[in-house]
Amino acid sequence: MSGLRSDRIWLFGGLALVVLLIVAGWFVMIKPKYAEASDMRGQVEDATTQFAQLRKRLADLKADNENLPEYQADKARYEKALPTADSIPAFLRQLQTLGSTLKVDVSAYTASARSTSAVVSTVEELPISLNATGRVADISKFVDALQNTQPRAVLIRSAVLTLGDLDSAELSLTLVAFRNTSASNGTTVTTTQ
């Protein structure tokens, strides 16, 4: 009987040892591999998400690249609106030519001292006063061209229209011309009003 008892002890001891080895193997060898595999799956998901975002960004950049000529034309227009060179005499000649084209006599220019813009620190403001004489309809076209057609950025601060005889009028304008003071036109100037 003692042999039978001893066999049972060895049997239960062996079974306990097998169970212990299985449990230890699970915690020591198998469970860390499952955790490592789960981490790898998470990394793959993150990489897949990042890849999708980068593909979308690439598609957006390709679409922007197709519009590059339009962006370059906008940049050239903005550079004309805010030139870096001090071209005030050329601008005043341009205003006089614009007036002549529209049958308006543009005269009596006065320019005040420049000042740095309160909105954009790399922009100078130059106040200019001028008089325009002609028919009311032609003066209206001149003001419209001054604000919308000619390339230089100007802001009309005040306008006084004095009506004369037979549809003639004199317009006294106070406006501000702007100039970019940065060293290169490659800088970006952003402002909201």
From TrEMBL:
Name recorded for this polypeptide: Type 4a pilus biogenesis protein PilO
Q: Which gene encodes it?
A: pilO
Keyword annotations of the record:
Coiled coil, Membrane, Transmembrane, Transmembrane helix
Q: Which InterPro entries match?
A: PilO, Transl_elong_EF1B/ribsomal_bS6
Query: Where would you find the membrane-spanning parts of this chain?
Result: 9-29
Q: Which residues form a coiled coil?
A: 37-81
| A Pfam family matched in the record | PilO
Q: Does the keyword Cell wall biogenesis/degradation apply?
A: no
